[in-house]
Design brief:
Layout lengths: L1 E3 L5 H17 L12 H9 L3 E5 L3 E8 L15 E9 L8 H15 L4 E6 L4 H9 L3 E6 L4 E7 L7 E6 L5 H12 L3 E3 H5 E2 L3 E2 L2 H14 L3 E4 L8 H7 L2 E5 L3 H14 L18 H13 L1 H10 L5 E5 L2 H10 L1
């Protein structure tokens, strides 16, 4: 499906680029101009063997594979070697057909074949669709390129299996389910902070004892998946120092509400297997208020947490189940 572009493709690519730019401008995105990318850009890519097309009988996508971009020299990339991807676009007449996803998967496979450590790319701050697409493929922001007004992104070519994982997110979004999936896939234990915090009949563990229990778990487990927020519990620093991977399930409030309703229906009148005796599953007004306000009161702190640890940890933020499943498939 992905092949090197030829000079015979330029007319088709230019027509496709003009449709793409028109669609961008209609959406209020001025990332490209009426003349860029144009025939001269495609010709230069092709003659240097850097132009590639997505061709399934008709050309529906394009990207340039650029070994060196001087604009990227001052970015603090996580890996020292990478390939820059430029002028990536798909035909706006062929939306929602998986073409962009297939191209990015091919780019990552090509980088793996050539032992390139990272894929580098940039996009305009107003290009929300592209930024969401990059987050879908677990690209991380690495800096801002003032000269061209672009955000720089990086994705390691190989996603190394994590060893110590912290999972954050609203109640009901699937933190426990993800813990179990990662545990089964990677063969390491999981623990829910709720199970360490709550005693019988919803009695809370004293702060000092909770810190001791969490610390002891971390010290006695060389690998683990740990889900739960507990940002003000006194355990966050120890958890962050131990972990190598931070995952934030950044889902809409309605998804959280649907999740807790389903959970209450499943465990109605009884406690979950991972909770202490007498901790009967229930939804009360205090809990609903917490869920409803989570994205306003706690989400900013979690986004800041990921941002400040992106150079020391693998930080992953998922906004859809599909993007999470794509990540799980890579492990």
């Amino acid at each position: 499906m992905v092949r090197r572009a030829t000079l015979d493709d330029i007319k088709t690519l230019d027509a496709m680029a003009r449709r793409t730019v028109k669609a961008m401008h209609a959406s209020g995105i001025d990332q490209w101009s009426d003349t860029y990318p144009g025939p001269d850009d495609f010709k230069a890519d092709i003659e240097s063997q850097q132009g590639y097309v997505y061709d399934d009988g008709a050309i529906r996508g394009y990207f340039a594979w650029v070994p060196h971009d001087p604009y990227y020299d001052d970015i603090a990339w996580k890996n020292p070697s990478g390939i820059a991807i430029h002028r990536i676009f798909t035909d706006p007449n062929c939306t929602r057909q998986g073409i962009a996803k297939a191209m990015m998967e091919s780019i990552i496979e090509m980088a793996q074949d050539e032992n390139i450590e990272s894929v580098w790319i940039d996009t305009h701050p107003a290009n929300d669709a592209m930024r969401a697409f990059l987050h879908y493929f677990n690209f991380q922001e690495r800096g801002f390129i003032d000269a061209i007004y672009r955000i720089a992104y990086e994705r390691p070519t190989w996603v190394n299996p994590p060893q110590k994982v912290l999972i954050f997110g609203n109640s009901g979004v699937g933190k426990t389910t993800l813990s179990k999936k990662l545990s089964a896939k990677l063969g390491m234990p999981y623990v829910h902070l709720d199970s360490l915090y709550w005693l019988e009949n919803w009695q809370s563990t004293p702060r000092d004892l909770f810190i001791e229990k969490v610390t002891q778990y971390i010290q006695t487990h060389p690998s683990f998946v740990m889900d739960g927020n507990y940002l003000g519990s006194g355990t966050l620093t120890a958890r962050l120092e131990a972990a190598d991977t931070l995952i934030f399930l950044d889902y809409p409030t309605q998804m959280a509400l649907n999740g807790i309703k389903m959970r209450e229906k499943t465990y109605h009148g009884r406690a979950r297997s991972d909770m202490a005796e007498g901790c009967i599953e229930k939804i009360d007004q205090e809990f609903l208020t917490y869920v409803l306000n989570f994205n306003t009161t706690r989400r900013p702190a979690l986004l800041h947490l990921l941002e400040t640890h992106q150079n020391t940890h693998t930080t992953l933020r998922f906004t859809t189940r599909a993007s999470l499943n794509t990540y799980l498939d890579t492990l």
